[in-house]
Design goal:
By secondary structure, this protein is α/β, with parallel strands linked by helices. The chain has a single domain (about 5-145), classed as Rossmann fold. It is built from five helices and five strands, in the order βαβαβαβααβ. The protein has a five-stranded parallel β-sheet with strand order 3-2-1-4-5, with helices on both faces. The protein starts with 5 loop residues before the first strand and ends in a 6-residue tail after the last strand. It is found in: Cytoplasm. This is Universal stress protein. Keywords: ATP-binding, Cytoplasm, Nucleotide-binding.
Amino acid sequence: MKPIKTILCAVDFSEATTPVSNYATTLAKALGAEVHVLYVAPDLERYNLFEVPSRDIEAFVNNIIEGAEKSMAKCLDTEFADVSGKGVVRMGYAPQKILEYAEEAGVDAIVIGSHGRRGVDRIVFGSVAEKVIKQSNVPVLTVPIRSRSS
């Protein structure tokens, strides 16, 4: 078994971030590993099909990235303060960007939340975690996330 020295923790800045970060930090402390925290902002290229000026979309995307970077800084300070690591913001299709970053950074494991959606919700929203699990070359720890209404 390859030692785990770098953990990728995928976050979405929702209420799910705390339980996911708790697992990632616990693992990092136990293994002496570094944590790379990744947030993937949704890609807005599909809106180029509408009659929205590309400069407006580009400005909106820039605002999203700027906001995500501020949220990442807060997340690192609150959720990952006592482990070594870094925060990264990317834009695109979440499963693809998570897997690309894992490969690029040479991480040894991934920690990700799973909402456990079923039925129509699963069809509509898909499962980022499931796609990552099926295609990952490294172990993936999924943290079950239940909404407060569940």
